[in-house]
Amino acid sequence: MGTRFRLFVQPPFEDPRSSPEIVEVSSPLGRVTAGPADDRMFVVKPVGKTGPYGLNRGPLGTPYMYLPPWTGKILEPATPDACGNFDYLRPSMAGFEAAHVFGCVRFTLDVWERYLGQPLTWHFRDHYDRLEISILRRWDNAQYGYGFLEVGSQFESDGRVLPFSLDFDVIAHEVGHAIIFSVLGVPHPEAEYPEYLGFQEAFSDCVSLIAAMHFPSVIDNVLAETRGNLYRANRLSRFSEFSPHRQIRSANNKRTMAEFARGWKDEHELSQPLTGAIFDILVDIFHESLVARGLISHAVEDLADVAEFDPAAEAPVQHAFDCAFARNSDGFVEALIDARDIVGTYLAETLWALAPDFLDYGDVARTMLAIDQDESGGQFTRIISRNFRRRAIGEMHAGPHLKGGEHHSHVHSARTLLPIDYLELPKMTFREKVLLSRSMGSQ
Ligand SMILES: [Zn+2]
Q1: What is the pTM of this model?
Q2: Structure confidence at residue 143 as a pLDDT band (50, 70, 90)
Q3: Is 78 helix (H, G, I), strand (E, B) or coil?
Q4: Ligand 1 centre and the CA of 174: distance in Å?
Q5: How many A from CA of 271 to the centre of ligand 1?
Q6: 33 vs 37, 41, 227, CA distance in Å?
Q7: Average pLDDT over residues 406-414
């Protein structure tokens, strides 16, 4: 029997009506202890931790490597109830945040370990047994790196602080990076193409999207809102929009590689053609599955394709979907779950087959087509190749990195940092070391 947690699918600050749903994750009941903690990971809320892990600067400005474990004080951990569950914790209670972030990580891993066919082995296993999940309220970002997954908050101009620990999308996206590091790995610095960085972001967005589609409420709400016409803007196709990170990410976008051929500034933007292509593949597989089940006609499917470009076709398409959905909504649910699992499996298989050196989007497209050939004898070849071609993926490539985008780039800092990299850092003077250890000691 698994362990129960209460998770928000949509964070409460984004949708005030949302309430956390009870889910059961695979951790055996009774094996998750206070923290929460198990043999794979543990949550801490450090007291006095002033900065995130990664490359930091000492009191005199010398860069140094800051990695787990946190050895200072921590806030009271979340404890399980008498049976070993955490779902008794309500949002207003101390411990809810810690239980929530743990539950989100475990839930996302459960989904993706099924697609990957095996438990994830942390890429930092040489140095740490377990992932430290740390909640750093006063920091404005979220990151996964060597031995840690760290979540901060979104600071709004009206003074509100929106903790990422309550945001499933953000947490699941970081788990996506963990999966890439473990399964695909990091390229040698001289073999890193910009599209590897874009792939990191696109794949992580897909990890989050497909994990969210494992909440029955997400499937139900999406279908209730769209009646299966998934090109309509809806919560599935639009990653939540309150965060600046995600404002620039939208799965339902029309961007192509032509926009980036002369250069790019930010890997989140660069990820959009690929994320968009994968989302369109999911939608097309779903629509084709509706046709195969006799739920919509070929004519409606074709009209839905036209409506993408011709607004005049939108109303008749919606009307056709409304009628079809009313006739057999359960069939729509099954078709969407099928499409989700086909795309999830193809992405996982693609990740196993890729190599990080000189990786570009064309490799991703070719590999996915080969996987389709293997898995289904090429059932979705037309859909996959058409959607990659529309984005000029594999035909046009990202140009040079243009200055000005570094602020948002996190792949080159905390994420890819390895303990051995300290050799490349300048040596800190004894005086600065003393100052640093004093400032750490007072935390
Ligand atoms: Zn990311």
Answers
A1: 0.90
A2: very high
A3: strand
A4: 6
A5: 10
A6: 5, 11, 42
A7: 48
